[in-house]
Each structure stands twice: as structure tokens, then as C-alpha cells.
Amino acid sequence: MPTRKPKASGKTTGKTTGKTAAKANMATRPAAKATTRKTATRKPATRKAAARLTEAAETNRLQVPLFDALGERNGEVDLPEAIFAETPNMPVMHQAYLRQMANARQGTASTKTRGAVSGGGAKPYRQKGTGRARHGSIREPSMKGGGTVFGPHPRSYAQRMPRQMRRLALRSALSQKAIDGQVRVIESFVFDEPKTKQARELMSAIGFDSSALVVLPAPNYVVSRSFENLPDTKIVLARNLSIRDLFTHTYLLLSKESIELIEENFSPRQKEDAK
To answer: The CATH number of the domain where 202 resides is what?
Structure first.
């Protein structure tokens, strides 16, 4: 019988080729790593550098444009750091806003219970024999014209909040306006007589494209009458600043004289040195 010749298997050749390729790859990998290795970027050096950047940002936000009475830019003015450099505290601002909105509620809503509605003293019809549901009074809550269950009654919605927290909320809102670049300062208002047109031209010259809150140091009838017909503008005194007015108006226009009053009224209380 003819002898079978052993077949040449390709497995051995394949294994040999695979090992050779793997060794070649291993030999070339370190060189590829060396070429593709990236140099690590250095992080900002120290706390001093970060502090310098923070101080520079605060300085920039405390410098706001200054305008004259005609709406022309007249340089810049520095805002007081005690008021406009506060770190915005969102929870306190939210609480102060809710408090102001709650205190504005009259709380006069009132409804009558079945005991307060007149009539209904007699049983409307007999207990049995009519085929209808049994009732003892026509002033039951289920009857038309009857009393109201769990309806509103006159009450007070007033909320109390410590003075220091209220001042912190105002400082936070003012600081947020400064951060957003929405604060402008004007030297003075010059109105010979109430003129809405002149007030509108002044706001346009300053560059206001949205609602604005105008802060005055003292009551001024001519200025107030000039601005009160503008739909998106409100006049308020420096000592009467509120968190709601700051939230509902985009820009803040401060009279230069009102800045000192704001600093005087809303600065944080200084702690006395312990003896």
C-alpha cells in the first residue's frame, strides 16, 4: 500500500510568523510612546497667583461707567467694596424675595362655613319616604348656596427675617448686578421741568435696552414725574432699595450721591473688638 505523506501544516508557520510580528511590535512600542508623549501642562502655581486673579476680577467689576447729565460717558467710578464685592448668597436672596412677596399679601380672602351662612335651621324634608338623599340643612357644603369647607379666612402672611440677613440679600443682589456688568452711575439729573421725552433720550444715550431701576439720594418731584411714564423704568430712593426691585429690573442706574447712602445703610455690621 502506498504510504501517505505527512501534510505540511500551516499552523506552525503561522505561529512562527505571529511571534515574530509580536516581537517586532514590542521592539517598536517604546519608540512610539516616546514620540507621542505629551508634556504635562503646569497648573496655576500657587494660591497667591489665584488670589491675584480674583483681586483683578473684583477690581474690574467694581469699576463701572460714569455718565454726565446728558448721557455722555465721563470716565469710570469705583463702587464701594463693602457693598458690591459681596459673594452672592443665593439661598438668602431667595428667602428675602419670598418674604417680601409674602408681606405684600393682604390676606383678606374670606369664605363662610355652614355655621356662618344664614338660614338652614329647619330640616328641608323628612328623613324617609321621599326617595332622596337625607339632609338636615339646606346650608350643608353639598347643597347649593351652602357653606364652604376648608375655605380661606383672613390671616397674616407676614414673615420675619433678621436685619443682617436682609442686608446680606441686598448686598448679594447688588454684587450680582456688578458681576453681570449691569450697573451705571450718573453724576446728576438736570430737568428744568417734567419731560418724559428728555428722560427717554437720556436712557437711550446711556445705552439701556431693557428695564432699569433709577436710584435717587432724596425725593425729586421733577425727576420722578419725568421717569414715571416710562413703562420699564422705576424710581426708588437709596434707603428704600428692595430685593424685588433688583430682581425685576435688568439695569441699575445709580445717582453718584446715592452710593454713599447705600454704603451707609447696607454695609455689614462691624464687630467690636473683644476686650
So the answer is: 3.40.1370.10
Residue with cell 456688568: 181
Q: What is the pTM of this model?
A: 0.71
Residue 263 to residue 78: CA distance in whole angstroms: 13
Torsional class of 14: left (φ above 0), alpha (ψ -120 to 50), beta (otherwise): alpha
Residue 10 lies in a domain: no
| CA-based nearest residue to 258, from 212, 217, 214 | 217
Its domain, for residue 70, covers 53-91+161-266
pLDDT in tens, 4-26: 655 555 444 444 555 555 555 55
Q: Could you give the number of structural domains in the chain?
A: 1
Contacts of 29 (CB under 8 A, 6+ apart): none
